[in-house]
Amino acid sequence: MFRTAVKLTAAVVVAGAAVSACGTVQMGAAAITGNSRISNSTLTAQVANLTAAYAADEKKHIKPQRPASQAAQQVLSWLVLFKVYDHLAAQHNIHVTQTDIQREIYRLSNQAKQNNSTLAEYVSAAGAIPPDLTQELARYIAIQSALALQINGGAPPTTAAQQATVQAGVGHAQCVAAKNLGISINPQFGQYDYGTYQVVLKPPTLAAAPGPTPKASPVVTSPHC
User: Structurally, how many domains does the chain consist of?
Assistant: First the structure.
């Protein structure tokens, strides 16, 4: 039986540095990252892929880790992050090969097997990633791994001190790359939280219902890198 508490362990080493956004969202764009755009049609197609994966998962009693109602925000977050890491790779002279990508897919597949699931089930349920984007996910992880080696002098970090240094270095590099891209999100999909690198829904403007409400974490909108 698939364990619903599974975590996508290789996908995110660090999230928490803040960056800034600027620029205007072009017509028909879900987001703008530097000189490239993520079109509404691309986002719509990938949201449909994730929704279909969620439906297939549900038939096997596999529960998604993230709210299915926010599939658009989840998918757009990944599409933007992939752009950030492509820019980061260019900044740090990191070249990822297809062999590197296949190696990360193999590792993800092993993680999926450990949770008694297929790779498609694993990335969709645990990571809110459309299975069609598995190659892009593997490329992102390969870039992050290469940067970690670069920061640690070419060797994998093994000690707590090395891991802390790598985490700080990756976070800073990610922050700088995202800031340089001037990320802009189409307001119809929400806003970018630069503290978590996620697209989040904007808070409702209507008056809140009476009674206590849970305190939400503030959205980070200013750079810290």
Answer: 1
> For the domain that residue 69 is a member of, what is the CATH number?
1.10.4030
Residue 23 maps to a domain: no
18 in a structural domain:
no
Per-residue pLDDT of 26-76, as tens digits, reads 668 999 999 999 999 999 999 999 999 999 999 999 988 888 889 999 999
Question: Is 6 inside any structural domain?
Answer: no
Whether residue 166 lies inside any domain: the answer is: yes
Q: What is the 3-state secondary structure (H, E, C) of the chain?
A: CCCCCCCCCCCCCCCCCCCCCCCCCCCCEEEEECCEEEEHHHHHHHHHHHHHHHHHHHHCCCCCCCCHHHHHHHHHHHHHHHHHHHHHHHHCCCCCCHHHHHHHHHHHHHHHHHCCCCHHHHHHHHHCCCHHHHHHHHHHHHHHHHHHHHHCCCCCCCCHHHHHHHHHHHHHHHHHHHHHHCCEECHHHCEEECCCCEEECCCCCCCCCCCCCCCCCCCCCCCCC
Residue range of the domain that includes 174: 29-200
Task: Name which of 2, 131, 134 is nearest 58 in CA terms.
Answer: 2
Closest Cα partner for 137 from 60, 85, 189? 85
